[in-house]
C-alpha cells in the first residue's frame, strides 16, 4: 500500500515511519510541509492509497488540508487518517465532517497505528474488489445490477461512490468510517452522542420498480433531507442496508430526532421521487427512538447498531390519511 504522511514534527514522523516499517508498510513518503505534500499528491503518477495528516500544523491545519484533498477526484474516497493530540469531541466532529476516515491521538502506540492502517488497507481492497465486481456485472448487464449492493450490502462503497459522482458531495459515510467516528466520540470520559435509525419502508418494492439512477437519487435525497432537518446541528449518517440510515447526533439535537419522521417524509414527497413512489408505493418513513452511547474503551458497534435498527423496525408507518399520528418508538 502506497502511504504518504505529513507532520511538522520531525520526531513524530520518525516514530511513525518506524511503526509503519515494523508493520511491513515500506512504500511510505514522509513530508513536513502541507504545501509540499499537496504538490506531491498532484504530481504523483500513481495515486496514494492512504494519507496520514497531523492536525496541528502552522499555516494550514490537517483538517483544512483534508477538505482540500477531498476536492481532488482521485482522492475522494482515499482513506485519510488524522493524527493529533486533540481528543475533544469538537475536533473529532470537525475532522469527520471534512472528510476524515479515521482518527489517531498522540501519543500513539504502534499497535493502534498499525490497527488503523490495516483497517484502511482493508477498505482500499474492498473498494477495489467492489469496483471490479461492478464493472464485471455492468459488462454483462447494463440494467444496473450494482443496486443489489445498495439494498443489502452496506459494507461495499461502490453504490455510494456512484451516487456521489452523480449528485456531488456525499452526505453518507461508509459504515466503516461511521464506526470509526463512534469509536472516537465514545472513547473519552464523557459522551453526549445519541444514536438512532431512520427507515424508508417498502424499499425492496421501490428498488424492484425503479431505475438505477432513481434509486440512488432517492437514497441521496433522503440523506440530504436528514442533514437539512438537523441544521445547524451536525449529524452523521451511514447506510445500514435495506433502506435504513444509522444516524448519530449530539444530545442538543435529540428533540429534532424525535419528530423527524413526519417532517422528513413530507420533504421527500415534495422533492424528486422515483415514479413508482408517486404511482403505487407511497414513500413512508419511520424513525427509532434515540439512545445515548456510553463512554467505553471499545464500542461494540454491532450491538449498538442492532439496537438502533431494532427500535426503528418496531415502528410501522402510519396509515394513509393518518400522518399526524406518526411517532417514533
From TrEMBL:
The keyword Secreted does not apply. Residues 2-121 form the Response regulatory domain. SUPFAM superfamilies: CheY-like. The modification 4-aspartylphosphate is found at residue 54. Keywords: Phosphoprotein. SMART domains: REC. Gene3D superfamilies: 3.40.50.2300. GO terms for biological process: phosphorelay signal transduction system. It holds the Pfam family Response_reg. Transmembrane segments: none annotated. This is Response regulator receiver domain-containing protein.
Amino acid at each position: 500500500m502506497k502511504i504518504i504522511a505529513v507532520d511538522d514534527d520531525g520526531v513524530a514522523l520518525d516514530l511513525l515511519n518506524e511503526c509503519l516499517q515494523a508493520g511491513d508498510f515500506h512504500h511510505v513518503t514522509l513530508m513536513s510541509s502541507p504545501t509540499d505534500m499537496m504538490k506531491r499528491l498532484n504530481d504523483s503518477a500513481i495515486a496514494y492509497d492512504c494519507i496520514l495528516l497531523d492536525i496541528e500544523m502552522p499555516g494550514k491545519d490537517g483538517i483544512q488540508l483534508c477538505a482540500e484533498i477531498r476536492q481532488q477526484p482521485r482522492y475522494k474516497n482515499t482513506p485519510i487518517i488524522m493524527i493529533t493530540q486533540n481528543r475533544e469531541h469538537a475536533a473529532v466532529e470537525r475532522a469527520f465532517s471534512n472528510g476524515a476516515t479515521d482518527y489517531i491521538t498522540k501519543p500513539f502506540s504502534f499497535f493502534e497505528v498499525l490497527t488503523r492502517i490495516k483497517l484502511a488497507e482493508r477498505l482500499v481492497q474492498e473498494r477495489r474488489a467492489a469496483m471490479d465486481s461492478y464493472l464485471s456485472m455492468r459488462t454483462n448487464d447494463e440494467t444496473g445490477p450494482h443496486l443489489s449492493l445498495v439494498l443489502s450490502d452496506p459494507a461495499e462503497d461502490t453504490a455510494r461512490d456512484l451516487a456521489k459522482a452523480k449528485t456531488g458531495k456525499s452526505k453518507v459515510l461508509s459504515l466503516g468510517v461511521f464506526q470509526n467516528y463512534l469509536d472516537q466520540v465514545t472513547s473519552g470520559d464523557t459522551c453526549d452522542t445519541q444514536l438512532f435509525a431512520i427507515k424508508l419502508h417498502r424499499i425492496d418494492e421501490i428498488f424492484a420498480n425503479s431505475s438505477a439512477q432513481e434509486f440512488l437519487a432517492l437514497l441521496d435525497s433522503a440523506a440530504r433531507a436528514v442533514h437539512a432537518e438537523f441544521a445547524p446541528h451536525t449529524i452523521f449518517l451511514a447506510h445500514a442496508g435495506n433502506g435504513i440510515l444509522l444516524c448519530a447526533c449530539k444530545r442538543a439535537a435529540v428533540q429534532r430526532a424525535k419528530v423527524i419522521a413526519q417532517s422528513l417524509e413530507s420533504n421527500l414527497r415534495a422533492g424528486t421521487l422515483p415514479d413508482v413512489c408517486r404511482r403505487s408505493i407511497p414513500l413512508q418513513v419511520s424513525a427509532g427512538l434515540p439512545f445515548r452511547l456510553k463512554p467505553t474503551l471499545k464500542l461494540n458497534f454491532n450491538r449498538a447498531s442492532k439496537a438502533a435498527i431494532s427500535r426503528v423496525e418496531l415502528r410501522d408507518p402510519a396509515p394513509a390519511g393518518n400522518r399526524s399520528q406518526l411517532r417514533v418508538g
